[in-house]
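question for whoever is on the cluster today: can someone run the full assembly for these? two chains, 569 residues total. i dont have access anymore since they changed the login thing
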Amino acid sequence: MSAPATLEVRGLRKVFFPGTANEVTALNGIDLEVPAGQFVSIIGSNGSGKSTLLNSVAGTFSLSGGRIVLGGRDVTKQAEHVRSRMIGRVFQDPRAGTAPSMTIEENLAISLLRSRRSGLRRGVTNPRREVMRVQLSRLGMGLEGRLRAGVNKLSGGQRQAMSLLMATIAEPSLLLLDEHTAALDPKVAATIMELTAAIVAERGLTTLMVTHNMELALRYGDRLIMMHAGRVVLDLDERQKATLEVGDLIVKFHEVAGEAFAVDRMLLE
Amino acid sequence: MQVIIANALEQGLIYCFMVLGVFLTFRVLDFPDLTVDGSLPLGAAVTGALIVGGHSPFLATAAGVGAGLCAGLVTGFLHLLLKSGESDSTNYGPKLLAGILTMTALYTVNLRIMGRSNIPLLGVQVIFDKVGSFLSLTMIGWNLVLVLAALAIVVKYVLDWLLHTEFGLTLLATGDNEQMIRAMGTNTNFTRIVGLAIANGLVALTGSLVAQQQGFADVGMGIGTIVAGLAGVIMGEVIFGVRSISWVLFSVIGGSIVYRFLIAISLRLGIQPTDLKLLTATLVVVALSIPTVRRKVVRL
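^ ran it for u. tokens below:
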């Protein structure tokens, strides 16, 4: 178990397929400092680099430049699975966060083991089942009575709630949410978002949440970041954020992104 | 008929370790591992060479299993070399190639170990003779079946225990959702390599026992192992069900026995032994394509 940590991102660059015709600069110098316990919403259009930013922090691929410091420790060169002991992640696809052919209790046992080496002791034990029941009952989905059910029997919303629980149950230093409500129907998405906010607030988790939904980004989190073309183009604190509405955000977006659009158009002509 | 049943049981139980190995790679790890065509004769070759060299059949069998473990390690490391940096668990190319390379290399290794293409094990003490004299039983017919069944049950429960440990859960998840288990802090390269080693150790155990039971080790005895193993896995799953890991391990052993029964009956009906591989391959194709065909038919 580890405490929420400060995240520091310095001069982050990521170029996909360098030196080929398909070369894409996904991140073009990102500097970001997230104090411990802060909940940051990240918005931006398709291809703005927001998911690449999350994957870079998680260590899914190696960087083209820059460094990442988590809790005072430089993790830039650390392998994904090593970093994962400190980082909880929830993906957009509800199927991505759980092992479908394993049971609810087996999945949760795995998430309880994060941050320590798994050994040859029994994975699902009665004390662990108790912890699982308590945690599952907070989801309000009745899963606490179905510990031995296969995860593939659950609905998308239930699976995403499980993913959220699995990402946070071992108290990660950092929580990464990659459009984790985008693939759910609106009512379920709202439930999952409320659960997320409650868990993040209760544990004081350092959180980065990527979303397409400007309303979500305004309503949740203590800070809002807008990305465009691999850069941070807008960074609002809680006070600035509170005065804005979706309309204002769109205007802001055109202000900061407009210049880039104009340049694109010039290049085309 | 009694003789056919005892024979099929005996064969099914000897081959069930191989089928369990194929189950571990194909189903648990989602890694179609072709190493098994080489690690089965490897187990036979190592055991055969050591017994002929005057070593204890227990040591020879253990060494055969150890050699199989190493073959699995080699395939695991080759897979690491062959797959591109970014992990994509549904990319079967590097998995297949790693197995094919090890299998091919093992052909030479097996010939080198044996020094020739066939080692007869007649007139020497094999593991069944030792166990038989310890139990004061002649190791033929039902006596042999009982001893093999006991071994199968022990191996089944060891696997069952392993797959329910913390490490076992990460092993199951590696084949089920690699992205998730990596995000949970597990080094899937490690779990995969350990899984491949265990699986090929089991396959080599079958090779070692086959050699000692039929009285010779042969470099060609591994051909078609993967297909026979798949046939056993699929039949076990279809006939006995897959309700839990503990259950499916029994199902797979059952599948191995049923498969050997079918072979015994086919031979009885006058089918040539050389035609069996085509028959087995057809059987696997039919079994694997049933879900696809059923979906197509429903859609029409």
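summary bc i know u wont read the tokens: Residues 24 and 200 of chain B are 9 Å apart (CA to CA). Chain B has a mean pLDDT of 91.
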